């Protein structure tokens, strides 16, 4: 029999704050009632602030980030269109696979897992594409499988330097509302996220930010779409309504989650994620282990993918943590299976939760055969959190 709390230290779904969970405990309501827009219209406005866009349009699709991936592609591109993509982790791999399944010509760049978007190669290919045959450029902002964050602004700079009109697609599923993201400033045309990460909700909502340029492209794109069509959403969303039955309890939860983000302040949310993540990274270093991310500039502030020592099976670390210590750690995906475990550090999170994750990881690592010193990682994280408790040290580190 398990007692106490079951700990969730995976990079999504994340912990749902109690206030958000209570907000979702509502009776069903009439989604065609005259006052329904009073619930939904503020959600669109709040998500625009999270995306940092004034000119973009936000769509909410029942589904997940994967559904929003598909909506972004099918509404703005046509069969046979050429797109520039890179693959450096399981989720960038899946997005490329979807593009191929939908009939796009994918100019795919394979990159070592642990690296990020190959900006220089993108720049070369965009500069060489003088006929502008590339219609879309795709960036996985935060590769959840490897704990790598890529530079979206640098990709926009490459597009601008080449004078290239391609649409910029960004997968921000595990970055938006946790890592700095600037839709308008970075010229992002399609920004994808989901409810179950930084927005602190259960899975069930695919969120899509769409630029005016992308919205215009949807009027001439010829890829088939039905449920995910922008035009029907635009027509109904103006009054706060939807062309199909929406998940109203999730909307109530989203209102509470957005209120929490605004009360803390988006900049403070981002700084908190950086500080908590840095404590985890210092613990990993104290264990003598390595992250999958190839260098500090790529380190993710929402998930750390940690390599286990030779001779240790990361699946055993994960099993022990779950079965003996009531804690879920993230698994290594695809080629990283058995070699990596992941600690998610995003959403509704504080120092005590990170320290619990690290303490349990130390127990599980040792039981799986890794000789890490008990308390070493926890102590390193504690020291960093104590040093930066006023936020000044974390802000300075983030600026480096």
Topology (SSEs and partners):
Blueprint: E1 7-9, H1 18-23, H2 37-51, E2 57-63, H3 65-76, E3 82-87, H4 90-101, E4 105-110, H5 119-128, E5 134-140, E6 142-143, E7 148-149, H6 152-162, E8 167-171, E9 190-194, E10 204-210, H7 212-217, H8 230-237, H9 248-264, H10 266-287, E11 303-307, H11 314-325, E12 327-331, E13 340-344, H12 351-367, H13 376-387, H14 392-399
Parallel strand pairs: 1-12, 3-4, 3-5, 5-8, 8-9
Antiparallel strand pairs: 2-10, 6-7, 9-10, 11-13, 12-13
Helix pairs in contact: 2-9, 5-6, 10-12, 10-13, 10-14, 11-12, 12-13
Looking at this protein, list some descriptive labels.
single chain, 400 residues, alpha/beta, Aspartate Aminotransferase, domain 1, Aspartate Aminotransferase, domain 2, seven-stranded mixed beta sheet, 42% helix, globular, disordered C terminus
What is the fold-level CATH name, i.e. the topology of the largest domain?
A: Aspartate Aminotransferase, domain 2
Number of helices: 14
Instruction: Give the H and E element order.
Output: EHHEHEHEHEEEHEEEHHHHEHEEHHH
The assigned CATH architecture of the largest domain is 3-Layer(aba) Sandwich
In angstroms, what is the radius of gyration? 21 Å
Name the strands of the widest sheet in spatial order: 2-10-9-8-5-3-4
CATH class (first level) name of the largest domain:
Alpha Beta
Domains (count): 2
Poorly predicted spans:
392-400
Could you tell me how far the N terminus lies from the C terminus, measured between alpha carbons in angstroms? 47 Å
Find the CATH superfamily of the largest domain.
Answer: Type I PLP-dependent aspartate aminotransferase-like (Major domain)
Instruction: Please count the beta strands (DSSP E, at least 2 residues each).
Output: 13
Shape: globular
* Class by alpha and beta content: alpha/beta
